[in-house]
Amino acid sequence: MAHTHSHDHSGHDHGSAGHVHGSTDKKRVLVAACLTAGFMVAEALGGLFTGSLALLADAGHMLADAIALGLAWYAFHLAGRPATGQLTYGFGRVKTLVAYTNGIAIFVIALWIVYEAWRRLQMPAPVLGGPMLAVAILGLLVNVASFLVLHGGDRESLNMRGAILHVLGDLLGSAAAIVAALVILATGWTPIDPILSVLVSLLILSTAWSLMRAAAHVLLEGVPPTLDRDLIASDLAVTVKGVREVHHMHIWSIDGSSNMATLHACLDEGVDAHQAVSTIKKRLASEHGISHATVEPEFDQCADEGDGHDHGHDAAPHHDHHH
To answer: Locate the Cation efflux protein cytoplasmic domain: which residues (predicted)?
Structure first.
């Protein structure tokens, strides 16, 4: 049960399908980035011309998205590069760093909009409803277009998920601007504009937060959300012959999709270490979706014992070693 996600490409072979996806994803993200960036300029000008904060909020959102999509494209571009002597894991994490940085940038934009809206509620400014409606509707169409472009991509990649989330948030932003324009045209009540701009910025904040959380988890070497370290450790001890226990186990992900593990395997006397290690690696790959594992076999005593390491808490099912 390596990937228990219900995706349209269930059980695909990571090698080939990954590459096919990679190249189309890269093109998709670039198209969406250009669409978003182009219209973001139009929307910002529209917002200044009509005096609408909701349009400016949506433009701010689109700016963050254009940057996000541009960086996502760059991340795909880098991820294809082979590892180097200095960067032994390759460039896969660039995507994660990008997602994190991008999250911080969006936070700032959202806070600015909230501040601006608060000022406007105290001193309402005139807003041109007609042109505002036209710009907002165009914005919605552009967002629908980029959503359709991205939606055909791989939904498992953190990078693509981030990109799609952005565009979805944008759809809602444009919808809010349309609603504000309609209310202003119908009733002339301008405070609706800053009120809806605050809603848009709250939406931006939640998007940023979820992106940053997923990225931070990867950067902190967290166990991938689909796996359970202690379960996997006890599973190895039970299923692999000659393994007495597994401790010092770490599982982490490079980029949100490929997983790594290191562990110590305590073996019974007379067990063939090479055989046991290779069985453990095979089981990790086939059953748990961990493609790269480093296994340290031990007989009798753990090599890390006696040098002052308190590893009781970091061990999985932990028994006293037989000395």
So the answer is: 229-297
